[in-house]
Every structure is written in structure tokens, then in C-alpha cells.
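Long-time lurker, first post. I've been practising inverse folding by hand and with some scripts of my own, and I keep getting stuck on stretches where the C-alpha cells seem ambiguous. Below is the full C-alpha cell string for one chain I'm working on. Before anyone asks, I'm not after the true native sequence, just a reasonable design that respects the backbone. If someone could post their per-position residues I'd love to compare against what I wrote down in my notebook.
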């Protein structure tokens, strides 16, 4: 059953990816309940995350089952088993699990996307360092970045920052709570030979706290992809995207220049934007327009452009 499904989806998605010259894409996402994986092809390697569930197997039996799945993947996709990285991940709201260390070993790899190179880590953390679902959104930012001042909040490994820099942004400020990810974002910029200390600022800190001191009327483009919920020990207060998004967006709008825009997205499945409470000129839902072919019908994030 798993083999047949993999054969079908791999043939379909790999063909689409070749046509679009895309080297990293998702080709299986919980297609079969009995095989609850999210599987990404990453330019010659595979990252397969099994959603944690009550499978009824003993540990040894489960390990053998995972090995059998890996072997099937290897045969269908024609990737060596040692280049297939399998993990078990909890079902968590949003992306709040991304800061948890997963393993002590490290297997880094450089992968291409739209002419840029990204450092991914296939072993240490729950996520690899590149969220494939925002491929189109990143390109939108790059096309608008020329001469602009760009702010990337909850920046993770700085993929949006890299796109903005490659698009000719006058300045790019990247803010994230994690020292690991701030350093990773800087490494991505350096690897692509785009890093300029006078133009690119990497800030480790609580985004919500940083916003209280954010300079007003400064940024032309703000990218904000917050977690669904966070109660990190490093934050003074907990954050809930449904409850707190209006207050968050009001702060962002103060930081925007006139005619500036905010790219706002989140992963809360039941998110409802409180449009009437947001003092913006226009609010446009771009969820469908920014959903790549490999995530259509399976993506629960929302994405908006909010213009001051």
C-alpha cells in the first residue's frame, strides 16, 4: 500500500518539480493513515518525519517497521538509505517545536532554491531549517525588495532575509529569540556572499519585547510568521496568535512607512483575521496565491499582505 502510493506521488511531484526547476519539495504528507509521514525531497536527500501516534507496536517492532519504510523509500526515489533521515515528531500547534534539540549528531547539507543556497540540518532538530511551503512568498519579497528597508521577525534561519538581500534591499533586520537560528541565518547570508555588516543586522531577542522599542515609520517591508502559541521561559508573557494578532499587527503598522506592507502568516488551522480591528489601508488574503504545488490541499497556514 505504501509502495503503491509512493510510486504514484513521486512520479507526479518529481515531474512537476523538474518542470519548475525545483530541487526541494514535499511529495508525501500523511497520504495514508497507516503511514503518517511528511516526506520532503531535498536535492538528493530525504527527510521523513513520522507524526507521533498510538501505533500499538513495541519499540523493536516499530524500529523494524521504520527500516522497512526507509527501504521502500530508497527503492522508489532511488536515494541511498544513508541519505534518508527519519524522525518522529509531535503534533504541535504552529512551529513552536522548532527550537527543541532533536539529536546530538549533525548532518548538514547545502540545497538550492531559486538561485540561492541554504544550509539545512537533517538530524539535529525537528525541522531542517527551510520551510518549503513559503517558497512562493519568499520570491514575492525578493521581487519587491530593491532599495527597501526590510524587517524579518521570528526569522528562524533567515530564508526571507536572504531573499530580501538578494533582491537588493537597502537594509535587512532579522530578529529571533534563538541564538542558534540567528547564527544560522547569518551563516546563510555569508554562504551566499551577501552579508554586509552595515546593511544586515541580526538580533537575538524576544520579538514581542523588541517591538516595544522598534523605530516608528522605518520599514518598507515587514515579514512576520509567528508561532501559533508560545510560552517560552525567555518570554515575559505567553503569546497566542488568535488572541494577540491584532495588537501585534498594530505595532507592526507603526513600524511601517507609509505605503509599506506586512507579510503576515501563521499556521493556526482555525485562524480568523479580525479585519475590522486592523487599521490598514488594504488587507489581502494571499494564502492560495502563495501555496506551492506540493502543498495544495494540505496546507493549513494562512498568509496575508497588509498595507499601511
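-- Answer (accepted) --
I ran through it position by position. Result:
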Amino acid at each position: 500500500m505504501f509502495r503503491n502510493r509512493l510510486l504514484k506521488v513521486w512520479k507526479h511531484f518529481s515531474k512537476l518539480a523538474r518542470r519548475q526547476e525545483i530541487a526541494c519539495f514535499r511529495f508525501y504528507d500523511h497520504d495514508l493513515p497507516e503511514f503518517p509521514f511528511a516526506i520532503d525531497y531535498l536535492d538528493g536527500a530525504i527527510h521523513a518525519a513520522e507524526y507521533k501516534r498510538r501505533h500499538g507496536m513495541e519499540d523493536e517492532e516499530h524500529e523494524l517497521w521504520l527500516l522497512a519504510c526507509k527501504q521502500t523509500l530508497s527503492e522508489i526515489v532511488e536515494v541511498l538509505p544513508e541519505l534518508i533521515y527519519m524522525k518522529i515528531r509531535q503534533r504541535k500547534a504552529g512551529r513552536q517545536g522548532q527550537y527543541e534539540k532533536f539529536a546530538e549528531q549533525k548532518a548538514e547539507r547545502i540545497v538550492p532554491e531559486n538561485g540561492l543556497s541554504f544550509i539545512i540540518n537533517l538530524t539535529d532538530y525537528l525541522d531542517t531549517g527551510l520551510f518549503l511551503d513559503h517558497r512562493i512568498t519568499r520570491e514575492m519579497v525578493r521581487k519587491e525588495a530593491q532599495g527597501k528597508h526590510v524587517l524579518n521577525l521570528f526569522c528562524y534561519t533567515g530564508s526571507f532575509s536572504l531573499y530580501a538581500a538578494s533582491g537588493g534591499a537597502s537594509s535587512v533586520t532579522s530578529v529571533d529569540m534563538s541564538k542558534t537560528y540567528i547564527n544560522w541565518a547569518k551563516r546563510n547570508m555569508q554562504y551566499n556572499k551577501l552579508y554586509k555588516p552595515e546593511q544586515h543586522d541580526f538580533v537575538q531577542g524576544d520579538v514581542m519585547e523588541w517591538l516595544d522599542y522598534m523605530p516608528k515609520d522605518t520599514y518598507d517591508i515587514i515579514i512576520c510568521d509567528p508561532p501559533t502559541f508560545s510560552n517560552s521561559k525567555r518570554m515575559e508573557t505567553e503569546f497566542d496568535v488568535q488572541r494577540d494578532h491584532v495588537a501585534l499587527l498594530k505595532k507592526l503598522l507603526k513600524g511601517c512607512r507609509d505605503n509599506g506592507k506586512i507579510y503576515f502568516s501563521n499556521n493556526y488551522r482555525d485562524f480568523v483575521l479580525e479585519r475590522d480591528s486592523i487599521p490598514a489601508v488594504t488587507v489581502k488574503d494571499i494564502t492560495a496565491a502563495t501555496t506551492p504545488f506540493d502543498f495544495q490541499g494540505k496546507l493549513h497556514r494562512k498568509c496575508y499582505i497588509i498595507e499601511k
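A couple of notes from the structure itself: DSSP finds seven helices and 15 strands in the chain. Residues 246 and 278 are 6 Å apart (CA to CA). Happy to go over any region you disagree with.
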